[in-house]
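Changelog-linked ticket: zinc ion example.
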Amino acid sequence: MSFSGNVKSELCRTEVEKNCCALAEAMGTLLFANTFSADCIRIVTENRDFGMRLPRLFRKGLGVTFDQLPETDAVGKLTYAVNDTEKIQTVFSACGFSAQTSISLHVNFALLEKECCRRAFLRGAFLAGGSVTDPEKRYHLELSTSHLKVSRETGTLMREMELTAKETERKGSSVLYYKQSDSIEDFLTAIGAPVSAMAVMSAKIEKDWRNAANRKTNCDAANVEKAVAASQEQLAAIRKLEKSSAYESLPEKLRQTAILRREYPEMTLSELAQLHEPPISKSAVNHRMRKLLSMASEI
Ligand SMILES: [Zn+2]
C-alpha cells in the first residue's frame, strides 16, 4: 500500500465515538468528496478501511444510509453514493446548508467549536480529498476540493489550529498543501495518525544524516583537491631544483623530503612524515617543503 493509503488506514483505526465528531468528520468528508450537490453525493476511494468506515460514519453523523455501495468483492475504486433527494436534504440540513443551491456549500464553523470536532473535520477532509507522498521520496501533503470557498475556509480553520497550509489552484481544484516535513508531522498528529507522523520524522532524520555524510565526503574531496594542488606545486619546485646546481648542495634533510615527495606525489604531508627515517612531524615536513619552495623560487 502507498504511504497515503497507510495514513488513511491508520486514521480509520480511530473509532467514531462522539456524535459531535461523527458529524464534523462527515462534513469534512462531504466537502472534500468527489460529488456533493443537491442531486447527488458520491464518494470514490481506493482505501478499503475508509470505505468500511463510511456507512458507519454517515449513519452516526448524519443519520443516512448509502443508496449505492460497492460489491463486497470489488477491487480498485470503491464508489459510495446517495441519490435519494430526501436523504440528501437530510444531509444538507444536518450540516446546516440549504439544499436549494450548491452555492451554500461552506465550512459550518458552528459545528466546529470544539477541538475534537475540528480535528475530526480535517480527518474527514483528508480521508476524502487528501494525499501524502512517501516521505522517503519527498515531503508533500495536500487536501483538494472542487469548492473554492470550502478550501479558503478550511485554510482559515487550519491557521486557527496553528496548522497553516499554503494554497493553490490545480485543474479546477483548490488545493491546501504542506511541503515541510514538520508541518506534515503536525497535521498528521492532529488528525489522528501519530504513527505516520513518526514515519515522516524518522525519514527526515535519515535523510538529514545521509546529507551530512555526503557533505563530509564532498568536504574530503575538496581537501583532496587542495592537497593535490599543493603536491603539484611542490613537485614543480623539486624538479626545478634538480635541474639546477642548487640540488647538489641541498642539506641532507631537505633532500630526503624532496626524494620522498617525488616518489609519493599522492601522499598527504602527514603520510609523508611517517615515511621519513626516522619519522618526523607533519609540521617539520611542511617546514621543509616551504624551504624547498622558497629555494626554487630564488632560482
Ligand atoms: Zn467532537
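Closing comment: Example verified and attached. The beta strands are 35-36, 41-45, 78-82, 130-132, 141-145, 166-170, 173-178. The two ends are 74 Å apart (CA to CA).
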